[in-house]
Amino acid sequence: MGDRVRLTEEQRLDWLRLIRSDNVGPRTFRDLINHFGGARAALEALPGLARRGGASGTRIFTRDEAEAEMKAARARGIAFIALGEPDYPARLQAIDDPPPLLAVQGELAAVARPLIAIVGSRNASAVGMKFAEKLARDLGSAGYGIVSGLARGIDAAAHRASLATGTVAVLAGGHERIYPNDHVGLLDAILPQGAAVSEMPLAWEPRARDFPRRNRLISGLALGVIIVEAARRSGSLITARLAGEQGREVFAVPGSPLDPRAEGTNGLLKQGAILVTEATDVISAIEPILGRGLDLPAQEPSPDEPPLHDTEPADDDRSRIVALLGPTPATLDDLVRLSRSSPAIVRTVLLELELAGRLERHGGGSVSLV
Amino acid sequence: MGDRVRLTEEQRLDWLRLIRSDNVGPRTFRDLINHFGGARAALEALPGLARRGGASGTRIFTRDEAEAEMKAARARGIAFIALGEPDYPARLQAIDDPPPLLAVQGELAAVARPLIAIVGSRNASAVGMKFAEKLARDLGSAGYGIVSGLARGIDAAAHRASLATGTVAVLAGGHERIYPNDHVGLLDAILPQGAAVSEMPLAWEPRARDFPRRNRLISGLALGVIIVEAARRSGSLITARLAGEQGREVFAVPGSPLDPRAEGTNGLLKQGAILVTEATDVISAIEPILGRGLDLPAQEPSPDEPPLHDTEPADDDRSRIVALLGPTPATLDDLVRLSRSSPAIVRTVLLELELAGRLERHGGGSVSLV
Predict the structure, then answer these.
(1) How far apart are CA B89 and CA B92, in angstroms?
(2) Is A81 helix (H, G, I), strand (E, B) or coil?
(3) Do residue B256 and residue A258 have CB atoms under 8 angstroms apart?
(4) Using one digit for the tens of pLDDT, what is the confidence trace for A43-53?
(5) Residues of chain B whose C-beta is under 8 A from some C-beta in A?
(6) What pLDDT score was predicted for residue B109?
(7) Which residues contact A295 (CB under 8 A, 6 or more apart)?
(8) How far is residue A78's CA from residue A187's CA, in Å, rounded to a whole number?
(9) What is the pTM of this model?
């Protein structure tokens, strides 16, 4: 999965079908590929797995649906780049849960460049927007692409100021559902030198929970994330947290303690974010990283674990493991110890439960029943 | 000099005469006391020393002048507290160059309390003034006295908000020359619960260079210094630098990168100042220090150096040492090595030159000819 070869079009269709099927997210996708050796085999096993996990009718994305989405994407000039392919953004590949397929519209080269994220309040002040523009312009001139979320306020200001030098909009919905709708024109201006990126189905209408999910891609694509203005509890702070978890540099722009729009950024500075008053503050922190190699993905299966498909859980394995699960997160280690099943069997049962939509994953590899 | 006993009134007069004489600053005062064992002996030796240093007519502050200043001070309720006396502020005593006599008007207890300095732009914004008031009020309620410079803008806001809880104004001139003049009313409001402090003669009109000199007392009195608003090159940044040199905590209030009044404070934050958006940021950094003992003065003569009065420089010592001096600062070590005179002789010659007004002292104990 980590080798940089291109998929065949047949394989790409299978990947699309697998990631678009019920209860398959980026992490489950990887587990399935590792388990079955490929998307085709995983698709064939999926109904049985989900049934054993307790699901009555798990929907598998059909070949026709996948072909239709591929065709619609092609018509809009959107390419599906698969994890491991040469065009897949290297930094994004190194995060915990990279999308198996990234739908990219516009210039592929814009996504491959060194990127810096600029995000912040939708309800931004005039001064905040002006400063976001200045940063984006100066970083663009210095050779960095600007990645952001196409939102009103800071995001839009950052995109607008980097149209000529290259900017990447990461969408929370599909390419056919631009949000907010009045930024369709801005997106059209972005595409000639930049790109729009989404992991969602083309016609996906973004819901509230899709924005934090999308934010991991903004930070994942970037070398560092600059928060320009952010209230105390805001989406930009989620991006900052994800950036920290992904090992990205976090930058924050200071503001008056009496300005509620600076509460979030001043808070980040207290927690150790790098203070930014000009582009050189960012560049001097980022430049040393550019030379460095990428971190390896944190959750590749380690070689001393036996492959999952060597073992098939028996019914009493399943009932023992399910009995140990509840609404409180439990770790894989605990489940193995308490169930006295092998790690491979526990992982298989968890995969089945996940595909049945009965499992929730938490930080630190712990899981709970939904 | 470090023992906490009270001077006799006769000794206090001698101390006042010595510190008010030509070319005697706090450091020279200490050297002279160490050299001659007391102010009276130093006063007697002063004309000879200055003459040997090359001065034609060094003015010694007369006994009559000292008595007149004492009397005028008493009439205004001003007490002269000598270094080493119980009422002398302990933290100020620990700096490099504490004033031998501190003229205090108002409540002595206000100066002895744990103090925090709040300083900033004279040309402050409404938001900056409001925030300085809030900080001063909250720190006052938490039991801290507020020390500042009685200037317009941030200083005045900090004093005003802490009138009831206790605030200390450190003057750049004498007690009879309040600057700015329209803050005489503010000072009157400060005195009932607070104090005004000066090291200058009562009638001293403050000159530009007296303000940085005064700033070392603001930071020296305080456990930490908060800079609220400061342009790029401003007096508040001098106070911040002195605070750092004195081992005081330096706090800075963030502001927008597009606000020139925040350039100085944002710069301090980049250099490691503690970011302040509320009083608890200050208190949680200061509280652990309150428990700690005071640092010893850094430049007390170490016991392995022979006392200065054991040695008297010969004329060729003097000419050799003077020949080594120029406008470029030289260290004592270099002068001893190159002159092949003893450290005690070199120090005596430097003292003579200083009293003659021919020596300038720099950081790190280096000196140059004026």
Answers:
(1) 5
(2) strand
(3) no
(4) 999 999 989 88
(5) 127-128, 130-131, 253-259, 262-263, 266, 269-270, 275-278, 281
(6) 95
(7) A94, A247
(8) 14
(9) 0.83
